[in-house]
Design goal:
This protein is mainly α. It has 16 helices and two strands. Helix 9 runs parallel beside helix 11, helix 11 packs antiparallel against helix 12 and helix 15 packs antiparallel against helix 16.
Length: 391
């Protein structure tokens, strides 16, 4: 067997950008003119064919990662026979010895390193490297991880824990990652991609707990509740919302409790039972009581309070408390008089709800009046929305 020599090469670890980049990792590394070779410097592991390996159909990146893993494990095993393994002092492998870390490294670790190289290519470009050597240096330097990698590794099934990969992340970056992931999960939920959203939020909750980031954890629970509502798992949604409620109460987050109360009431209304309508009424009234601490011209809170009144009106309507339903819808309109695009949308929705209520009460002229108002308000909303998009 050829003798393997290990040379420790230490690089300066740069601070990294938070700008997202498109993901086509394997080809991007190849295009950067970075040669990553096997332990004997005979084959480029990213491009050359290997006689003993046949690429299976599927993701070519996973195939190349498997080759990289095999090479790293081979080098670690051989080096253990020649020298004592140094200890890792920071990062995801902190406390382990280097060769053990190399043997334990999986495809997520290898992918993290490649994403790091992609973001900081200058120190690697135009040269041929033993992959195992530069990968070992990355581990020894604390396995520095770029922002995009932290975000992308959350896109894993629930049965794949990612906590270990986040060891060593600083609080500020972790908070930024959680913000981006929860926002992405919210958009996925709106688009109907609830399983993918659920996976992201599960992993986000893991990291929020790891970092003891209560504020993010509360909003993650809230988003998980919305996913359960979308999946028509109303009881699971309610239980998850209760977890968010405990966090918001602990943090004395009044705005969070108002937003949460609205969604809890909406979720209970969807169960369509007399009991759930009454439970929704109680929760929505509690949210409105908290809302009294905010002025009516608050552009962030007032549209939410308008929606609470709409959901409360729906509860009353389904309980056949028509006068209280009418009063709720009209009170909601009082919170739509501000210069905010979302308030205008809420106004159209409440006017439509009043029209529907008046139809039930056989008040045809009022039903028509509010139907026309709703159409006008919604047209105005769409015009302003389109104007904003053109800016």
């Amino acid at each position: 067997m050829k003798n393997i020599k290990f040379f420790s090469v230490f690089f300066l670890i740069s601070s990294f950008s938070l700008n997202a980049q498109s993901e086509n990792l394997l080809q991007e590394i190849i295009d950067l003119d970075i040669g990553m070779y096997d332990a004997f410097m005979e084959k480029n592991i990213l491009t050359d064919e290997f006689e003993e390996e046949t690429q299976k159909e599927g993701d070519p990146l996973k195939y190349r990662l498997s080759l990289l893993k095999k090479d790293v494990a081979f080098v670690a095993t051989e080096m253990r026979k020649q020298m004592e393994s140094p200890q890792i002092k920071e990062g995801r492998f902190k406390g382990k010895d280097l060769f053990s870390a190399m043997l334990e490294a999986d495809q997520i670790d290898l992918r993290s390193f490649l994403r790091y190289v992609k973001q900081f290519p200058k120190k690697y470009q135009g040269q041929k490297w033993k992959f195992s050597e530069i990968f070992a240096t990355w581990i020894d330097n604390g396995s520095p991880t770029v922002f995009d990698d932290y975000v992308l590794m959350m896109d894993n099934p629930i049965n794949v824990s990612i906590v270990n990969y986040y060891k060593g992340i600083d609080e500020k970056m972790a908070d930024q990652v959680l913000e981006k992931v929860t926002s992405k999960a919210g958009k996925l939920t709106e688009e109907g991609a609830v399983i993918k959203a659920s996976n992201l939020l599960f992993h986000a909750s893991e990291i929020a707990n790891l970092m003891n980031n209560k504020k993010r954890l509360g909003w993650i629970y809230y988003k998980q509740g919305k996913v359960h509502t979308e999946r028509e798992s109303y009881d699971f949604a309610h239980l998850t919302y209760e977890k968010a409620k405990k966090v918001f109460i602990h943090l004395e987050d009044k705005a969070g409790l108002i937003v949460l109360g609205n969604d809890m009431g909406y979720n209970l209304n969807l169960k369509e039972t007399k009991k759930s309508y009454k439970e929704a009424e109680k929760i929505l009234l509690e949210a409105l009581e908290i809302g009294n601490d905010f002025p009516k011209d608050n552009k962030n809170i007032s549209p939410v309070i308008a929606l609470i009144y709409q959901n409360l009106g729906n509860s009353y309507k389904n309980l056949k408390k028509y006068q209280q339903a009418e009063e709720s819808y009209k009170k909601g309109l009082g919170y739509t008089q501000i210069e905010a695009l979302l308030a205008l949308k809420r106004k159209a929705s409440l006017e439509l709800k009043l029209s529907e209520l008046y139809k039930v009460l056989k008040k045809d002229s009022l039903a028509k009046e509010y139907e026309n108002k709703a159409v006008y308000s919604y047209k105005e909303y769409e015009e302003k929305l389109n104007n904003r998009k053109r800016l």
